[in-house]
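re: ur question from earlier - yeah i can do the single chain one, its not a big deal. heres the input i used so u can compare w yours
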Amino acid sequence: MPLVTTTEMFKKAYDGGYAIGAFNVNNMEIVQGITEAAQELKAPLILQVSKGARAYANHTYLVKLVEAAVIECPDIPIALHLDHGPDFETCKSCIDGGFTSVMIDASSKPFQENIEITKQVVEYAHDHGVVVEAELGTLAGIEDDVKVAAHAASYTRPEEVEEFVTKTGCDSLAIAIGTSHGAYKFTAAQCTRNEKGILVPPPLRFDVLEEVSKRLPGFPIVLHGSSSVPQEFVKLINENGGNMPDAVGIPEEQLRHAAELSVCKINIDSDLRLAMTATIRQHFAEHPADFDPRQYLKPARAAIKAMVAHKIVDVLGCDHKA
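and the output i got, formated as tokens:
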């Protein structure tokens, strides 16, 4: 099947109490690992591309990689999404260039300006058969060009969501309930430590999510910054020359609960990077003579595939929902 929008997959996810994984892609091995897992598990899929990924890999190369994945995975619906579009021009370029979904992130702007910018993107996107994700509230952390200090983060205000969605016409809404971008989502001061000395992050604000859901019944909600930063990958990285002290993510059981509510799309990026980096570091430590990229990228791709399969089954709950 050709690339699809997220409209139908979100409706099914909302009604079915599961979420679709939105995985960031940057190169061939990442695309392959993600899509092979989804194809085998018959899971609907969103492949998303950030501004940074377009700068790194080139828009055309990324689109063609995704088109190849569509050919190789004929049994699952795949959407191609722009993650954190910073302005109208970037969104327009992706809409004109084959994307089926775009995010306009004007969440750092004042409320009315966010509405105006988002509405402009929505009007152009809808005229071209493309859907739009918008954002209210600001997540802390770092992801490509998105950098927000912890003190500047703000939870979504539920009392604003109805006006925002009505005036913009957006198709889904990313909200801030305590998730955060990057592998260092929380400072040590924000966390507690368990009996093993591992940082435990503060719980997500499900009260905010539930209030938003009451005000927007049936409307798909999105969570950004939702990597769980698996400690086995952090440990492998640190044991093989890395330096990632106190990297901590969102507990998977909290994400599963969010998926059972109104969250239809959960973004995962850092976990892909950690799986790839940990596997490559371990490979070099165990095979110091290897220099062929295929030798270390093949196990890295397999690690991504295994991690994505786990997310699909145990966190998102979208296996066999294609």
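Residues 293-316 form the longest helix (24 residues). not sure if urs matches, ping me
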